[in-house]
């Protein structure tokens, strides 16, 4: 018996376009019987992405988004039930499948011997991100197939998370960046080029650190309700969305307000099971609610969960993010609180028993971007390793 262990060397989170590395260790335990060498026929590895949909609402297009291996390898797979198929046993449809890489053929190991092989693969940049929505799901795995002669194939599957950062190849993003990297004057030659991860971190820092506050006047049919200020329009996973609400110039009394961080999952028209069905599904994540009568200023803080998926678009689904506001306003003026002329006296304000109210709903689109994959790995609950005995 030989134990095969697969381990992702850099964790379980990656950006599209990065190279993923998986260390596969084969170990032969100390002999308990004859002590003869153990032999494995072959081992191969692949990356694949499974797409699961709610079949009552979504149809997966058969051709446009499917990335298949070469026709020669596809014919080999279809000709034998014992061939290596990375997505075998998985639910849904395999929409991305890299070329299989053979790790070894005819591996012989003595008792107590250990051998480690590194499998590396570049993740396609046009791959969809990992996503667990209500109608559509994308999931990624590294699958290693190992077989003994005359025995069925054993599969080792290690899941990982993929995030997508759009505009990674656009140089214009760096024009407004403040490059403060210190160069070593004692090193000869040009400075080494940044890796894809370095460029991604720089882009994320540049976009999410821009101090360009935006103000919005919120009004209804009766007049001004409030003024909302958002300090920046783009945020990374794990950040807090901070905004202020000013009621000082309001002509309509606001009794309370709530702000909810929501994502909109919209199925494309070509993939809807029925054209009359609702194409958009809304999911709420974090909420801030406050009573604001007689307040002049208020603020809200909404944390962005680390496990959610930033905005993206594929042939099947489009995901967007927004802030959903609900203001409860009074239809009639609220009686003012009487302040006594003598400071030594006190007064208690009694609010009205019944108030006729209106509800003002407002949605503000925002941008949510990925986080550094190294940080996402530290908060991930996924295991970066898996073991199987062959």
UniProtKB/TrEMBL annotation:
Protein name listed in UniProt: RAB6A-GEF complex partner protein 2
Entry-linked PANTHER family: REDUCED GROWTH PHENOTYPE 1 RGP1, YEAST -RELATED
GO CC terms, sorted: cytosol; Golgi membrane; Ric1-Rgp1 guanyl-nucleotide exchange factor complex
Alphabetical GO biological process terms: retrograde transport, endosome to Golgi
Pfam families: Rgp1
Domain of life: Eukaryota
